[in-house]
Design brief:
Shape: globular
Structural class: mainly alpha
Helix content: 55-70%
Number of helices: 5
Order of helices and strands: HHHHH
Largest sheet: none
Radius of gyration: 14 Å
Length: 110
């Protein structure tokens, strides 16, 4: 069992990040039960805390992703939250967005 704060090897980290990213955007944003979304978003934020690359990948592949870089049924972050009226989704997306802005500030060092 992994201890809190233990570093995950790069290849496993990348795989874990991709799974959490897909679950967050492909399953939970499109399901009718949004309760698990907050827990999954927490895991995503934990991964982005541990890796500058994960945070930058999220910005590149989700925040500002154009339609040409997304899969057939995928949406970027803004499209995902703009198409949902459920308060749980909007609150979680807002928390995630504020977190990402803070991480970008930390990565930039300013």
């Amino acid at each position: 069992m992994r201890q809190h704060g233990e570093v995950i090897p790069s290849e496993k980290f990348e795989m874990l990040y991709q799974v959490i990213d897909r679950v967050t955007f492909d399953l939970l944003f499109n399901s009718s039960n949004h309760k698990p979304l907050k827990n999954i978003a927490e895991i995503l934020m934990t991964l982005m805390r541990q890796s500058d690359e994960a945070a930058l990948q999220f910005v590149k592949n989700r925040l500002f992703a154009g339609p040409e870089s997304l899969g057939k049924d995928e949406k970027n972050f803004f499209e995902s939250i703009c198409t949902h009226l459920e308060q749980d989704v909007r609150e979680t997306a807002s928390t995630l967005f504020v977190f990402v802005i803070g991480r970008l500030h930390d990565i930039g060092g300013d």
